[in-house]
Specification:
Blueprint (H helix, E strand, L loop, with lengths): L18 H7 L3 H4 L6 H8 L5 E3 L2 H11 L8 E3 L16 H7 L9 H13 L9 H9 L3 E6 L7 H6 L3 E3 L8 E7 L3 H12 L8 E5 L12
Parallel strand pairs: 1-2
Antiparallel strand pairs: 3-5, 3-6, 4-5
Helix pairs in contact: 5-6
Length: 224
């Protein structure tokens, strides 16, 4: 799959780049000195986008929205979490590992290279289902999901929640930290029953939930 266009810019972070980051990415203080990214140029590039895809949208969307608000108006999908790589026979969902397992390699840790590698990966048929990763993401983006937060869950059950796919969300926006997950609508009731029976041990326990579309998913609005 060949991209129709690409966007690659550098931005001065306003502070020195650490030696570790420079070694990892090849980006130095001299390369970014005095550089900025024009929000109008970003908006123009995004204008025709039907879907924004990242290989860790939980990180990328928050970062992008903070600097360029136009990203908040687009639906997002995550190739890291919304493709079941384990079910397809991969033992890691890291982009570099997935690429290597598919027989190609790339110079990682630079945004444009990562984007091109992800596009190549998503254009290929998956080993077991035969579907392309892109078709999986498009179907996923069209479906709503329930975001469930296990607020005040007992500390000693953290491993149970982790094994079930819950991730920790630190305290933010005046809310306490909590373990959370997202589930399809058809398993929502079963997940609530699991929390009430195995975590809270109360059949009437209140559970914090919210139905999200691809427009809210991974955004700071999903935690509002």
């Amino acid at each position: 799959m060949t991209p129709a266009a690409s966007f690659d810019r550098l931005r001065d972070p306003g502070r020195p780049i650490s030696a570790d980051v420079s070694q990892l990415t090849g980006i130095t203080d001299q390369m970014v000195f005095g550089k900025s990214i024009d929000p109008a140029e970003v908006a123009s590039f995004l204008e025709g986008a039907a879907l924004v895809i990242a290989h860790n949208s939980s990180f990328d969307r928050l970062f992008c929205e903070r600097i360029f608000p136009d990203f908040a108006d687009k639906p997002w999908a995550c190739s890291l979490r919304e493709v079941d790589w384990k079910a397809e026979g991969f033992d890691s969902a890291r982009l570099s590992h997935l690429a290597g397992a598919c027989g190609f390699f790339f110079d990682g840790h630079r945004a444009l290279n990562d984007c091109k590698a992800a596009l190549e990966l998503l254009s290929r048929p998956l080993p077991r289902s035969g579907r392309t990763g892109m078709s999986v993401l498009l179907q996923s983006a069209r479906r709503s999901r329930w975001r469930i937060r296990a607020v005040n869950s007992p500390y000693y059950l953290r491993d149970v929640l982790k094994q079930r796919g819950y991730r920790w969300e630190a305290a933010q926006l005046g809310r306490a930290g909590a373990w959370w997950t997202e589930v399809e609508e058809e398993v929502f009731d079963a997940e609530c029953r699991f929390l009430r029976s195995e975590v809270y041990r109360r059949s009437d326990a209140a559970i914090e939930t919210r139905l999200l579309t691809a427009f809210e998913r991974y955004s700071v609005r999903s935690a509002a």
